[in-house]
Specification:
The protein has 295 residues and is mostly helical. It contains 15 helices and 2 strands. α3 runs antiparallel to α4 (67-88), α10 (201-228) runs antiparallel to α14 and α14 (255-273) packs antiparallel against α15 (281-292). The longest helix is centred in the last third of the chain and has 28 residues, at 201-228.
Length: 295
């Protein structure tokens, strides 16, 4: 695939590419546990922005990697993301009924099967990485595990549960979302970059700074859209966080300030890329897309 395509064309091609990769690694629908396989397909295919795979592909361009080397790592990150959404929607967590414009997994298949689907998707992510023949496979597994675990996504979800109904200060809210959302976004970037030439220390630091800003920007914009959007436009329940008495950037700082914060984080992400030159252009375009998106 060419690297000089307009962003809309490039992102669509990569989204179609990862959709095919995900369909190929999911279990076939005629396995003995057919209902579980169907729930996994429901949770993964046919929807979603595919932001994390896009970030992996974009970061890989910085290190000159062929997209084929990135496929398994992009798929593994998206499988972890999909599992987290299945569990996040469960009645014991956020208790939501709509995801990506369709019934959530537990609504469509029941709580027990949804729980198993999340478990199986997490296991499948590491199976996909384990069969990756690219270099640094062990390092890739560690990066993804750290991002998904107690110091990352799962830990951030626990902080989110602990904070429900409480008033948080801004640093606590940012920490929560740097773990819950930002850690996996950072992992996607690192996994993509790992597919090409080795990064210099300054390049790695620049990517980490970009990931911190872009990851937090994504959540700030999510909070803005949750406050302003509708279920039809977002493909998920709008206003859910406020109804659940959850602290958000909008409830904490106000809508106008949250929008200003998102724009400032966009500039911070772009500034972090400056030392990396033209090879980081896709990452810059993704920072724009994260902040300017409407769903």
């Amino acid at each position: 695939m060419r690297n000089d395509l307009p962003f809309a064309v490039w992102s669509h091609e990569r989204q179609q590419r990862i959709e095919g990769v995900l369909a190929a690694v999911l279990p076939p629908l005629d396995v003995p546990a057919a209902r579980l396989a169907a729930a996994m397909h429901h949770a993964v295919l046919g929807g979603g922005k595919r932001l994390r795979p896009l970030l992996a592909y974009a970061a890989s361009e910085l290190t000159g990697a062929d997209p084929a080397r990135v496929d398994s790592r992009a798929a593994a990150v998206e499988l972890i993301h999909a599992y987290s959404l299945v569990h996040d929607d469960l009645p014991c967590m956020d208790d939501d009924t709509l995801r990506r414009g369709k019934p959530t997994c537990h609504v469509a298949f029941g709580e027990a099967t949804a729980l198993l689907a999340g478990d199986a998707l997490q296991a499948l992510a590491f199976s996909v990485l384990a069969t990756d023949t690219a270099a640094a496979g062990t390092e890739a597994c560690r990066i993804l595990a750290d991002a998904a675990g107690c110091a990352g996504m799962a830990g951030g979800q626990q902080l989110d549960l602990d904070a429900t109904g409480r008033t948080l200060d801004l640093p606590s809210l940012e920490l929560l979302h740097r773990m819950k959302t930002g850690a996996l976004i950072g992992a996607a970037i690192r996994l993509g970059a790992l597919c090409g030439r080795p990064l210099a220390a300054a390049e790695a630091s620049a990517l980490d700074a970009y990931a911190r800003a872009a990851g937090l920007a994504f959540q700030v914009v999510d909070d803005v859209l949750d406050a302003e959007g509708s279920a039809a436009s977002l493909g998920k329940t709008a206003g859910k966080d406020a109804a659940s008495s959850k602290a958000t950037f909008v409830t904490l700082t106000g809508l106008a300030q949250a929008k200003r914060r998102a724009l400032a984080l966009r500039e911070e992400a772009r500034a972090a890329l400056a030392p990396l030159g033209g090879a980081s252009a896709r990452l810059g375009e993704l920072a724009d897309w994260i902040v300017l998106r409407t769903k």
